[in-house]
Amino acid sequence: MHITSVVLLLLLVTAVSGPVARLLRVPLPLLLITCGVVASLLGLHIEFEPETFLLLFIPPLLFSDAYLMPLRDFRELRWPILLLAVGLVIFSTLVGGYFIHWLLPVVPLAAAFALAAILSPTDPVAVGGMIDADNVPRRFLHILHGEALLNDASGLVCFKFAVAAAITGTFSVLNASVGFVLVSVGGIVVGIVLTFGFNFVNRILSRHGFDEPTTQITLMTLLPFAAYLLAEHMELSGILAAVSAGLSLNQSRVFGAAQTATRLRGSAVWEMITFVFNGLVFLLLGLQLPDIAKQGIYMANKAGDSTWSLISTIVLLTCVLLLLRLVWIFLLGGGRELIAKARGHKPVPVPFMETAAMTIGGVRGAVTLAGILSLPIAQDGMPEFPMRDLLVTFAAGVIITSLLLAAVLLPALSRSLRHDGGDPVNREADEVRRLLALEAIAEMERQSALVTKQLDETAAQQRAEVTAALIAEYRFRLRLLEDTQDEKRHDEDASTTHDAAHRETALARRRFEAALRLHLLRTERKALTRMRHEGLVSDETERLLTHDLDLEETVLSGSARALPRHLDYKDEPRLSSPLLYTG
Description:
By secondary structure, the protein is an all-alpha fold. It is built from 21 helices and no strands. 33% of the residues are buried.
């Protein structure tokens, strides 16, 4: 099959996998891996180049996660995240390496360290498809995503040092420690410098009128690849360069002042890139599994072990890695309580179910596969990495086992977690909307006073009527938002029952109005399409008017989302729901 047909087929499978996973109620990563395995058994084979895989998939995915990372929460949780992303990786590499060497004496110690290091990074993409993000504590999600964002880099750096030690036969703790710091810090600096240059070029282009959305989005798409390639060329951490570029761009908020079209199109482009690349990662993993399994079974049988012995070893290795993760999380929780007591604060123990979910959430994925497949093979007179095929088999087995465990246990564990009591983002958004409404009202009153003095009586009256209508609109919105705050403060007071009922009635009217307006817009769009089919309007006119209707629908949808939520922030009806058309 031609490579173009293969790529198109993989894209098709990725596109339809989302609806199928929801229909079958199975985790999306497992469904994609299964599709890859089936395709491989049917004869589809793709030559897997780990270096190309790392370049093509990992930088944009990590860059996207870093760019969307909530920085305030990241700063608040920086110590748990760093201790998991760096401390746990080093702990797992050392203890896991000695355990692998003890369990399999035929594997050299340095090679065992390499396997333990590449098994340390976790995959947030796989976890994201197995839990309901709306029903778990946000702190839990932020720690998991922040850890996975940074431990890819620390795991790969440890892996490279272990591989070098296995090949050369020499290892120095001091040199490795200094090299680890230099490679990591150097990669971070490269990402920051490139982002600074991107921001500078973007401002220059915008200042001279070259602020087309396509140009800015294309430059942003190339940024993670540029950071990765430059850092790798300088023998630094390309992974950390891509991550730091995303965090720096997030911090600079360079697109905050960009055109609306740039922000909207940029969000759509990155959503598509993230969805497609995540899907392709797990499809490729499934395509490699049959060959990896055949090699592992052949080597086990050659050494006199059965296939079941190989499987039991993989399960044991996975359990040991989870145990090390559990021990480290318990140590972090204990240290947190000791620090709280030393500061005179009441310690807040971490619930056991949250600890268990955090442990099972350490799923291995794409970075582990790409890293282990990058081990040197015998070519051009160069010797093969010691026990390469066996290590690849163990890594692939741990990936699948951890995915299966998470698919079975994580949904139940996540449902038992203590929720925050509503969505804090929505609560904060309502409070900020109230403050913004106050700012808008104050600005309209100030502008009205200034403009009235400079216009004749007729014009001043027209301006005053428009301003009064807008002020009334904002005051109505403000009253709804302030009623929300009052109900939160006085929900135990029976005297607020009438006010709450009045507020719900007003909100229902507004929601019905928003739904009706959207329905009418869609009616106009259908009529416009019918007119084009009947030859009453040209294609160019139809595209122009459709664009205008899309923008108007975006504005209406945004206004509807700005309405206050219910107090429990749950069961909020969608604008397209038929319930909204019943009044």
